[in-house]
Design a protein that fits this description.
Blueprint: H1 3-35, H2 40-43, H3 46-68, H4 75-102, E1 105-110, E2 115-119, H5 125-129, E3 144-148, H6 154-165, E4 177-179, H7 184-190, E5 192-193, H8 194-200, H9 205-215, E6 222-228, E7 233-239, E8 245-249
Parallel strand pairs: 1-3, 2-6
Antiparallel strand pairs: 1-2, 3-4, 5-6, 6-7, 7-8
Helix pairs in contact: 1-3, 3-4
């Protein structure tokens, strides 16, 4: 084989790699700016899932191009082969992004004594159709902040608890949702002072101090609650007056 044979193939593959990386960057902007903003890219596994999809896709196209590119082919045949490679790659990327989309976080819900991240796949389809809260069950523009309303009676609490034991968490039930503003008093009743958190995690004081500094408030003006997600347990720092979430710390404070 001549030197030009491999040079042409490597050049075509390199061009394809550059195009693939550009498309991957645009896809990353969509995923991390809209579907998985911080801290959800960390606690919901969005970063790992996206990287898996993108690495496979970015490698797939250029490698196939390296294998099929040959200037000795008729131009029509070469165009057809390259078009097929592009279609295969776009189909793979589309399927991967659809998987990432289905797994996206849609709500962070105050669940009586903690926060829980709810993902689109956590909410049974039949429950989204029975949603009476008026809240969008599956928002497309990133996670929203919600709370669970108090139970109407012991019967409702028992039924919801049994459903949770069968795999549908309380926070994944739209009929229990209410706006976060309606639950702020309950949030502050169960939240604990951040100063107490610092005494619990002596080895993590530097991490906590950095998170407190990020809020722009003194530590004694902050409280905290645990945050549970699919892959991790973190801690949310809240304003002690408004209950507004201000910072997130990778500590299991439950």
């Amino acid at each position: 084989m001549s030197e030009f044979f491999w040079r042409d193939r490597l050049r075509a593959s390199g061009i394809h790699l550059g195009i693939s990386l550009s498309i991957a960057a645009l896809a990353g902007l969509l995923v991390f700016a809209l579907w998985y903003p911080y801290p959800y890219r960390e606690i919901s596994g969005g970063r790992e899932l996206f990287l898996l999809v993108v690495v496979v896709d970015v490698m797939l196209g250029p490698l196939i191009t390296l294998a099929v590119f040959n200037r000795a082919k008729p131009k029509a045949e070469l165009r057809r082969d390259l078009a097929l490679v592009g279609l295969i790659q776009l189909a793979a990327l589309g399927y991967g992004l659809w998987t990432v989309f289905l797994a996206r976080p849609v709500h962070m819900v105050f669940e009586y004594e903690r926060f829980r991240v709810v993902h689109a796949v956590d909410i049974p389809l039949e429950l989204t159709q029975q949603n009476q809260s008026g809240i969008d069950a599956l928002p497309l523009t990133g996670p929203t902040l919600l709370a669970l309303r108090p139970f109407k009676d012991n019967k409702e609490e028992m039924e919801a608890t049994l459903a949770a034991l069968q795999g549908v968490s309380l926070s994944a039930r739209p009929e229990l949702w209410q706006s976060y503003s309606q639950a702020k008093e309950r949030v502050l009743q169960v939240a604990k002072p951040v100063l107490a958190l610092k005494s619990r995690f002596i080895n993590q004081v530097a991490t906590l101090d950095a998170a407190v500094a990020q809020t722009g408030r003194p530590a004694d003006a902050l409280v905290y609650l645990p945050l549970i997600s699919r892959q991790a347990a973190w801690t949310v720092l809240l304003d002690a007056v408004t209950a507004e979430p201000l910072a997130y710390v990778p500590l299991d404070s439950f």
